[in-house]
Amino acid sequence: MKNLQKALLAVIAGSVMTMSAQAAISYGAGQSYVGIKAGQFMVDADDLDDPTAYGVYAGYNFDPNFGAEIEYVGSNDADVDTGISGIDAEFDLKTYGAYGTYRYAFPNTGLYAKGKLGFAKAEIEVSAEDFLGNSGSDSDSDSGVAGGIGLGYNFNPNMSVEAEYDYVAEDLTLLTLGAHYKF
């Protein structure tokens, strides 16, 4: 029975590799890209300000519609409203994500719609200091299914801009504007 399972897995793996290779050849071996983005994290918590976001991303389009993308987005230090006089607190966010992407190009316009679905990890680090100089910090992380939608414009075959709205984790979304170079 184990030999039959191994043979079946080998046939499936070979078929997937053959289809992937055919898709890459028909699309000219795919297209890689790298980009930068900036925007704002939107934190659904009354005592936390929404920090500025900045990040980098890279991807590969297997064909004109389907691709894969990874990204890192960090933030500046934002204030925490402790509600206590004499205590200053701030936090920063970091997110890491890996996504499958789908693009739909609107005919004869340069515009395209983008959707992405995958996995992301969000990390928060909080630090506080009181008026006597005592300080402390804490951190936490959350990971799970994440995704986003966006709208982009191709200036030429190598340069594009994108506006995106992403769901990163519970109580955390991200709105960004990015630019990338395709090679």
Automatic annotation (TrEMBL):
It comes from Psychrobacter pocilloporae. Residues 1-23 form the signal peptide. InterPro entries: Beta-barrel_OMP, OMP/PagP_B-barrel. It comes from the Bacteria. Residues 13-183 form the Outer membrane protein beta-barrel domain. It holds the Pfam family OMP_b-brl. The keyword Signal applies. This is Porin family protein. Keywords: Signal.
